Amino acid sequence: MLARLVVLVLLTSCASGFVVKVDSDEAFSANKYKDFKIFKPDPFRVESDEEENPIRINRIAKALSSSLVQLGLNQNDQSLLKVSFSVKEKERRNQINSSHFFYGYRNDPFSYKFYANDFPPVNYLSVKFFDEGLDKVVWYANMRINSSSLDDQDLANEIISQILSRYPRSS
């Protein structure tokens, strides 16, 4: 519980914490959907920059399922609304800066830790709602995450909750 609280405080204190980017198709109407089916990525057939840990994939699927049920949707294998997700890693662009040339030892295998312009990759969790009847994605959301936060079910639930907080409520 304390670890969850610390991570949540750190995430919310960052300028980029819980920034969810959403887009929807003009044909999208939340009132149209009463049920959903979740499609998990296959951990053995992923692109090199996608999450391949099947336990994390199961945590995300469980969090998505429970959050969508809380939104009033029912899980149904015959649903036209297919919900998929992915965790992708995107590299930050390294900018060449003169500071690279004036301090540190490039031959030291640990010196990369001291360079301000060497950035670690950034991870994004994307959620896509695909309408099989329309044959297109109708709602999309993504959020920058720390992939290790998916190592705990409670944190995965919180992340999915933040993403789906931007999903329009059906009336």
TrEMBL record:
<dbReference type="Pfam" id="PF13590">
    <property type="entry name" value="DUF4136"/>
</dbReference>
<protein>
    <submittedName>
        <fullName>DUF4136 domain-containing protein</fullName>
    </submittedName>
</protein>
<feature type="domain" description="DUF4136">
    <location>
        <begin position="20"/>
        <end position="168"/>
    </location>
</feature>
<feature type="signal peptide">
    <location>
        <begin position="1"/>
        <end position="17"/>
    </location>
</feature>
<dbReference type="InterPro" id="IPR025411">
    <property type="entry name" value="DUF4136"/>
</dbReference>
<keyword id="KW-0732">Signal</keyword>
